[in-house]
């Protein structure tokens, strides 16, 4: 399996300002209850401004090509966990199948339980962005997003949506759950874009 080792910090300080390291301990940070998983009814959808709308069952998802990505994770509540080894399907691979329309510039990510988050489409083409089923060699635990979560290492953790069920490609940006509730719209840890009043 291909392993992708790119610097989450892209050459900046490894640990962004105002963050502390948690070591091996991996906190669970969830707004609301942990949703259940039914492999019969689960699907993953790619919708909106694309040439090929996509729908994968759990079984179909399991047949997609996987990669491993080593990446750091930075939560806006100030903890950082370095060197996470994720396994899953690169977001870029899914986008290449879906073929975004030229007007598509933003992505709304949707999840079981109703959580949403938004990212610029170009962020999802970064090599270290993936839809992960495994972390450090184990299937995700329910609290950490089983069966599937998005991982966007270069942005604050709230963009790494757990229990993800699909993405919608949009021409206009659509703020998600935390972005509507005071967090920054983009969320770059190196610029400490924690809240919507930071620049
Ligand atoms: N569906 C969903 N995804 C979510 C969240 C959430 O509340 N619901 N919290 C986010 C936040 S704030 C962070 S820091 C990361 C934390 O991932 P972890 O709980 O696996 O450590 O998940 C993100 N993904
Ligand atoms: Mo977070």
Would you write up a description of this structure?
There is one protein chain. With 199 residues, the chain is mainly β. It has a single domain, classed as Oxidoreductase, molybdopterin-binding domain (Sulfite Oxidase, Chain A, domain 2, Alpha-Beta Complex). 9% of the residues lie in helices and 32% in strands. It has three helices and twelve strands. The chain has helices spanning 58-62, 91-98, 177-180, and strands at residues 2-4, 20-21, 43-48, 54-57, 67-74, 79-90, 106-111, 116-120, 130-135, 138-139, 149-151, 164-170. The strands form two sheets. Strands 1, 2, 5, 6, 9, 10 and 11 form a seven-stranded mixed sheet that branches. Strands 4-3-12-7-8 form a five-stranded mixed sheet. Strand 9 and strand 10 (138-139) form a beta hairpin. The chain is globular, with a radius of gyration of 16 Å. It starts with a strand and ends in a 19-residue tail after the last helix. 32% of the residues are buried. The model has no long low-confidence stretch (mean pLDDT 97). Molybdenum atom (MO) is lined by residues 29, 75-77, 157-158.
What would CATH call the class? Alpha Beta
Q: Would you count the extended β strands for me? A: 12
- Ligands, deduplicated: ligand MTE, molybdenum atom
> How does CATH name the architecture?
Alpha-Beta Complex
Number of helices: 3
**Strand coverage percent:** 25-35%
H and E string: EEEEHEEHEEEEEEH
Rg from C-alpha positions?
Answer: 16 Å
Tell me the domain tally. Answer: 1
Class by helix and strand content?
mainly beta
Shape: globular
Report helical residue fraction. Answer: under 10%
Low-confidence stretches: none
Q: Biggest β-sheet, characterized?
A: 7 strands, mixed
Distance between the termini: 39 Å
Overall pLDDT score: 97
Q: Would you give the CATH topology?
A: Sulfite Oxidase, Chain A, domain 2
* CATH H level, superfamily name: Oxidoreductase, molybdopterin-binding domain
């Amino acid at each position: 399996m291909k392993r992708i080792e790119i610097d989450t910090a892209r050459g900046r300080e490894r640990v962004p300002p105002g963050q502390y390291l948690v070591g091996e301990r991996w906190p669970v940070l969830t707004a609301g209850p942990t949703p259940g998983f039914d492999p019969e009814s689960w699907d993953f959808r790619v919708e909106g401004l694309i040439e090929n709308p996509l729908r994968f069952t759990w079984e179909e998802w399991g047949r997609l090509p996987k990669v491993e990505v080593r990446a750091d994770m930075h939560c806006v509540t100030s903890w950082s966990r370095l060197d996470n080894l994720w396994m899953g399907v690169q977001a870029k691979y899914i986008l290449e199948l879906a073929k975004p329309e030229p007007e598509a510039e933003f992505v709304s990510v949707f999840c079981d339980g109703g959580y949403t988050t938004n990212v610029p489409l170009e962020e999802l083409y970064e090599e270290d962005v993936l839809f992960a089923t495994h972390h450090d060699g184990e299937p995700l635990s329910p609290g950490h997003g089983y069966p599937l979560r998005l991982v966007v290492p270069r942005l604050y953790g709230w963009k790494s949506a757990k229990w993800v069920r699909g993405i919608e490609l949009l021409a206009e940006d659509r703020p998600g759950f935390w972005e509507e509730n005071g967090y920054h719209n983009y969320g770059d840890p190196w610029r400490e874009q924690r809240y919507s009043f930071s620049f």
